[in-house]
């Protein structure tokens, strides 16, 4: 279970709480949606839920964030990556820029774990297949459209096979067809037992996928 | 995806595109470029001219005339200022011979590296370096540095378009263009900083900091001669630079400069 227990967070050097005390639970196989206006703290919530805030970016966390009973504060960033994948809303910055092909880009995470080449290949192929990206496998990641890059970034996370996924506005830059692909992939992942927390403005997307929706209100 | 096994074979799966397989490995090309550039820089004169001429000939033979011409065009302001400074101004003091020597050294350093990246995708070079044991952080830093120029150019184009859409005049006379530069610098620098931060976070979520060795998916098969050639090039560079340093210390005459007459 991914649990936020009255979790509040403020960024380094800031006196203001970017995320007010928030509680939620994401059970394995469930999809929880988060909606709210701009500046309401959706992205901060994603950073906190994935553990990157404060483990990787510093700042102050009050309350608790637990992934399968383990406080995120006790995990290293590479352990967090295997527990909970985080997809940002800006596709270009999520690709490494170090690889010639999409399949190498997707394989980057599993390679970091030092898995056997066969395991890396299997995970990469599965992630590409899940999102219907086999036709992009040989393409240069630097020449993808924004929507394609977003899907490739998601495939890169799936290749790490985390039990929980946090998606920060995953379809805000995608056309209808690619949004459907992401929605279908999320449905399949949830059916396979992955817990998903997703923020999105698209009410239709949230209504299709989510078992519960948290409203972050009117912001500040 | 295919996997290059230790024995050079390819495991099952769709073929992984391996530029350079069976040819000169990217690291050998790097050794060639660095040793040529280093020797040319250290010795100047006819050594530098030989390196530059060799690089140019190779570029033409490989069909890289356009990139060569572009690189030459990029060097033109440096060449002209060097010639002006050394040939006509008392501060330079070296005359045309010194200017030509500086030009030859400049070409000897830049041509081999330009040629290297014209025929070798940066991703291949990084993959080869990593396969040979270079630390993943060093590979990323090197990769980020290589991607910085095209990345900044792309971002600058986006900023210019955005500012033009808001009425900024970036064309016309030179004073007007200079005035137009100021509103571009801020968004460009801040955008770069934000992207660096986002990219760092994106690496963290891909387990970049995981302990242990990364899995190597691509290896660039090479014959035994390439390893020997790399060591020979390193030896040549070290020996050449050492000899150049030792010459004046031993009281021997410095190598002859290029003379325009």
Describe this structure in words.
The complex is a heterodimer of chains A (220) and B (261). Helix content of chain A is 37%, strand content 23%. Chain A has helices at residues 42-50, 52-55, 77-83, 102-112, 117-130, 146-158, 176-191, 203-209; strands spanning 2-10, 19-26, 31-35, 60-67, 70-71, 84-87, 164-168, 195-199, 212-215. In chain A, the strands form two sheets. Chain A has a five-stranded parallel β-sheet, with helices on both faces. In chain A, strands 2-1-4-5 form a four-stranded antiparallel β-sheet. Chain B contains eight helices and no strands. Helices cover 69% and strands 0% of the residues of chain B. Chain B starts with 25 loop residues before the first helix and ends in a 12-residue tail after the last helix. Among the domains of chain B are: 26-121, no CATH class; 136-204, no CATH class. Chain A binds chain B through residues 50, 52, 56-57, 76-78, 80-82, 85-86, 88, 90, 92-101, 103-104, 107-118, 120-121, 124-125, 137-138, 153, 156-157, 160, and chain B through 1-3, 5, 11, 13-14, 16-17, 19, 121, 123-124, 126, 136, 139-140, 143-144, 147, 151, 195, 198-199, 201-218.
* Unreliable sequence segments of chain A: none
Give the CA-based shape of chain A: globular
Q: Could you tell me which chain pair has the largest interface and how many residues each side has? A: A-B, 48 and 42 residues
Structural class of chain B: mainly alpha
Mean pLDDT of chain A: 90
Oligomerization category of the chains in this entry: heterodimer
What's the gist of this structure?
With 220 residues, chain A is an alpha/beta fold.
Helix and strand arrangement:
The complex is a heterodimer of chains A (about 220) and B (about 260).
Chain A: E1 2-10, E2 19-26, E3 31-35, H1 42-50, H2 52-55, E4 60-67, E5 70-71, H3 77-83, E6 84-87, H4 102-112, H5 117-130, H6 146-158, E7 164-168, H7 176-191, E8 195-199, H8 203-209, E9 212-215
Helix pairs in contact in A: 4-5, 4-6, 5-6
Chain B: H1 26-43, H2 45-61, H3 65-88, H4 95-119, H5 122-131, H6 136-165, H7 174-204, H8 224-249
Helix pairs in contact in B: 1-2, 1-4, 1-8, 2-4, 3-4, 5-6, 6-7
């Amino acid at each position: 279970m991914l649990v936020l227990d009255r979790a509040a967070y403020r960024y380094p050097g800031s006196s203001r709480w970017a995320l007010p005390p928030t509680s939620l639970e994401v059970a394995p196989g469930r999809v929880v949606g988060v909606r709210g206006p701009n500046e309401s703290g959706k992205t901060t919530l994603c950073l906190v839920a994935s553990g990157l805030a404060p483990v990787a970016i510093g700042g102050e966390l009050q309350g608790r964030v637990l992934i399968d009973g383990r406080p995120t504060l006790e995990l290293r960033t590479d352990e967090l990556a295997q527990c909970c994948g985080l997809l940002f809303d800006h596709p270009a910055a999520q690709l490494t820029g170090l690889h010639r092909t999409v399949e190498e880009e997707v394989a980057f995470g599993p390679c970091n774990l030092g898995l056997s080449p066969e395991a890396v290949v299997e995970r990469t192929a599965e992630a590409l297949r899940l999102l219907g990206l086999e036709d992009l496998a040989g393409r240069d990641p630097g020449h993808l459209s924004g929507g394609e890059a977003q899907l490739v970034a998601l495939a890169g996370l799936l290749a790490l096979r985390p039990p929980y996924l946090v998606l920060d506005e995953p379809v805000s830059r995608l056309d209808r067809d690619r949004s459907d692909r992401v929605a279908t992939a999320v449905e399949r992942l949830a059916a396979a037992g992955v817990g998903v927390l997703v923020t999105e403005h698209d009410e239709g997307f949230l209504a299709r996928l989510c078992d519960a929706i948290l409203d972050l209100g009117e912001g500040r | 995806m295919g996997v290059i096994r230790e024995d050079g074979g390819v495991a099952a799966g769709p073929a992984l595109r391996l530029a350079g397989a069976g040819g000169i490995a990217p690291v050998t090309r790097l050794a060639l470029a660095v040793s040529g550039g280093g020797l040319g820089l250290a010795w100047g004169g006819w050594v530098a001219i030989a390196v530059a001429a060799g690089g140019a000939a190779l570029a033409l033979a490989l069909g890289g005339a356009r990139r060569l011409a572009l690189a030459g065009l990029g060097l033109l302001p440096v060449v002209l200022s060097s010639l002006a400074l050394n040939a006509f101004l008392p501060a330079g003091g070296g005359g045309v011979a010194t200017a030509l020597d500086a030009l030859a050294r400049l070409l000897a350093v830049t041509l081999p590296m330009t040629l290297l990246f014209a025929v070798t995708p940066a991703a291949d070079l990084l993959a080869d370096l990593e396969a040979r044991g270079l630390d993943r952080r060093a590979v990323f830093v090197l990769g980020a540095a290589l991607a910085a120029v095209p990345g900044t150019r792309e971002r600058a184009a986006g900023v210019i378009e955005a500012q033009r859409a808001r009425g900024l005049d970036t064309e016309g006379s030179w004073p007007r263009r200079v005035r137009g530069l100021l509103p571009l610098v801020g968004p460009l620098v801040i955008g770069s900083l934000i992207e660096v931060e986002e990219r760092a976070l994106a690496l963290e979520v891909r387990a970049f900091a995981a302990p242990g060795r990364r899995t190597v998916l691509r290896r660039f098969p090479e014959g035994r001669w390439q390893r020997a050639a790399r060591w020979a090039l390193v030896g040549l560079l070290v020996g050449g630079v050492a000899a150049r340093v030792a010459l004046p210390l031993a009281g021997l005459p410095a190598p002859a400069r290029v003379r325009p007459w």
